[in-house]
Amino acid sequence: MRGHKNGDKYLFILGVVLFLLINIFTIKDGHNWGGDFSQYIRHAKNIVEHKDYSHGLPLDSWVVCTPGFPLVLVPFVKVFGIQFKVFKTVNVVFWLLFSLSFYAIAKKRLKEEPALLVFMVLLFSHFFFIFKQQVLSDVPFLFFLTFSIVLYLKFLESQKGASLKRQWLFFIAAMVFMMFAALVRHAGLLLFVSVLIYSLFQKKAAKFMMAAVCAMAAVIFLQALFGASGAGHFHEIQGPWGNMFGVIANNVVSVLGTIMIYFIPIPAALMPVLFIVAPLLMIVITGLFFYRIKTKKLEFVECFFVVYLVGVLVWPLGLQEVQRYALPLMGLSLVFCIELFGLAWRKYFQQRFCRLRLSVEQVTRGFLLLILFFNVLNIRMQFSFNDDAIFQNDAVEMMNWVKANTREDEHFLFRRPRVVGLFTDRLGAQLTLVKGYEGKFYWRVRKFSVRWLINDKNIFPFNFEQMSNEEFVFLKVFENRSFEIYKVMRRELTKQE
């Protein structure tokens, strides 16, 4: 037994070391053109430079990010400046911390060996291997959320006999991490919703429920203090009920399908099967949830899983957003599957396979090792992945030209204004042009007093000088293989000149 424990210890250490070596070694500089990362960095930069939190955001920006992730970035921005390799290393550290936190949850529900294998599966996630290249709030959010659950479970355990002082210690620690999770992402508020629902069903002490309500109110106040967008995030789920049912029907397939793809590759030929399997899984999850409530066996992690799942299902999401937003369901889904499989095996399959001398532990071990194999194989296939776009020569040349040849009070249009704004300290708005709706394009040029138009030729492959009309003249002043820049002038000013 002691030798087995030592073996688990060495495997644990080896896994952590390999994880750090593989993921830090494969960090690439730069970033793709996605705009969210640049806004997080902009907010952090504003805090470091003692500027207004929303300073430098695009002219047409409708959202101000919650301050949690920018606050995480602040010390790194202050010490290193804008260094993407540093920011991505933060991702690696937080994923390790998340995996360690979830390991603590898994050990409470599974035996040591399957819990360790679950930890290894999460640690060597092929999804994270790619996702670490993006400077986004999801990975830190995942850690703060998971660790807050670990602390809340400690609080629930302490209620079985520990002193009131110890109970409050764990409860306050859990609330602090839940608050920071909610400061990183609005979805963290679902932790408080889960606490309240669970407390109502389990008839927990009212004083702790009131304290949870106060913590939730405090984090909403802190978000407002930074000017973070609040209700604006929820406008999409305030429409007609028919729209919401359509969103749920679509998300049932995409969310549950995404959870499967986190672990095993699903061939394209089998994707239609998800349209049958996903609704059935949703029925099973709903049935088990109400059964656990009825039998008074509902546990907090189960309550959180359902609350968060419902929160994701009612949200209109694209494919990339689903892959990000469903992450908190990743580990719990795997643990619940192992538990349900164990119950089904002992009830229906144990005697049928007794001649093969297969135990549920052996089958579970084989299943987890297979998932780990697929993860490692996918990592090997994508080992050289690099989606950097902003540090490519054409992009750097374009942004250097903007910084050297434009004034700070001159505005621009570009498809990714937050990125260009971060690196040039110029204000811009998004360039949108739809055939048949050219009037909206001219309206944006007029509204934002645009002086410069930056075009990505891969997106709009035509000459904007042809867009000149009776009001505006577009004159090309810069061009390389990927980008071109036009000076925007009004007709009356052109005549005067």
Radius of gyration based on Cα positions: 26 Å
Unreliable spans are none
Give the overall pLDDT as a whole number.
89
Q: Count the helices. How many?
A: 20
Helix-strand makeup class: alpha/beta
* Helix and strand run: HHHHHHHHHHHHHHHHHEHEHEEEH
Helix amount, in percent?
Answer: 55-70%
Sheet with most strands: 5 strands, mixed
Write a structural description.
It is a single chain. The protein starts with a helix and ends with a helix. The chain contains 20 helices and 5 strands. The chain is globular, with a radius of gyration of 26 Å. Helix 4 runs parallel beside helix 7 (about 140-160) and helix 9 (about 190-200) crosses helix 13 (about 300-315). A 5-stranded mixed beta sheet has the order 2-1-3-5-4, with helices on both faces. It is α/β, with parallel strands linked by helices.
Quick structural gist:
The chain is globular and about 85 Å long. Strands 2-1-3-5-4 form a 5-stranded mixed β-sheet, sandwiched between helices. It is α/β, with parallel strands linked by helices.
List key phrases describing it.
497 residues, alpha/beta, 20 helices, 63% helix
List the helices and strands and how they pair.
Elements: H1 2-25, H2 36-48, H3 68-80, H4 84-109, H5 112-123, H6 126-131, H7 138-158, H8 164-184, H9 189-202, H10 206-225, H11 241-261, H12 274-294, H13 300-313, H14 319-325, H15 330-349, H16 360-381, H17 393-405, E1 411-414, H18 417-424, E2 428-430, H19 438-447, E3 450-456, E4 472-479, E5 483-490, H20 491-496
Parallel strand pairs: 1-2, 1-3
Antiparallel strand pairs: 3-5, 4-5
Helix pairs in contact: 1-4, 1-5, 2-3, 4-5, 4-7, 5-16, 7-8, 8-9, 8-10, 9-10, 9-13, 11-12
